[in-house]
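Memo to structure team: turn this sequence into structure tokens by end of day. - J.P.
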Amino acid sequence: IQAIGRGISLISSFILVSFLTRYLGLQGYGEYITIFAYVGFFAIMAEFGLDQVLVKELALVKTKPQISRLFSEVLSLRLSLVFASIILAVLICLIFPYSSTVRWGILVASFTSLFLYSATTLMSYFQVKLNFVYPVLADTIGKLATLIISLILIFIVRSSLLILIGASIFGSATALLTIWLLFAKENINISFILAPSRWKRIFYLALPLFLISFLNQVFFRIDMPLLSLISGVKAVGIYGLAFRIYEYAAMPASFFTAAIFPVLATQIKNRLVFQRTFKKSLILLTIFGLAFTLVINLLGPFLISLLGGSEFVKSLAPLRILSLSLVFLYLSGLFMITLIILEKQKQLFYIYAAASILNIVLNLLFIPKFSYLATSYTSMITQLVIFSCVGILTLKNFINSWR
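Reply from structure team:
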């Protein structure tokens, strides 16, 4: 069921991208990507590492009243952070020389995070219960809703870019409604709690994870906002399509690490079982990372033609460059969640801080001359640095923890 759901989500996303690129063209798709890249950068404030904290805390509580209280506290804090992130994103975008279309698009797209992160909060409950069917089902229905509404807006309404962005809001709202209906069957009452004193502990636990996630966003997504400001939205369109395919190839790793995180968290006290699970995960991720790298290099021209058409032929070069870092990305995710379980968030922070600075410096130095090729190579180099550092740190902590 999970495989079918993920497959449907991936196919629907493929279809949507292929129609968006042709309908909007290089300029319009560049604006579309710029909007969501910008919003995604600020949305990390709403994420704030709360899902990881919730998963760890849920493993400790046993009774329904305790679960209800925990969910109420986390969801209330999340909603407050969502609205704060929306306000911040809209105000800061006024500083940059974006067109009015991009600025209005940022305002509209920002509300996607309101439904998206509310849904992920509820999905955390099923993640702890190792029930991944419900989250996949909600996500799949949301993706299909986005696709259907987008196609209606493209072929029947012939709507503008701003209206098309509304389809993403509709899809994320549909996903939230689906997971809420499934969550309601668990008889866990949730209410909004405006209690800063209660949020303080959660905030303290989540802060290191937020800083890591924020820095992760910096080195993973800052390239497109910088590219849009330095080289323009057409360069973002070229790079954005390549990066979207790269993200598709990275999805199995994110799904796998999300599934294995609660498993490893419960096995941490059993050294042999933990090491066995970690080793199997390491082997699987290596194999899949290498396989996807090979597939992208072989099928790159076909994928670019399928998703973008002749106008996006230049996307092939950045796609092949990005694909070289897939193995590093796959394994870094496993190392990162392992270090979080071992409570080494502080060390992770320094690694991601250094990688973020490196990423920004390289982009600022080379984008003016090499445009989207600079962002591609910078992403690959930064991912290699992250992989090397977290890999060494994980090995070191394994030795020290179980010496």
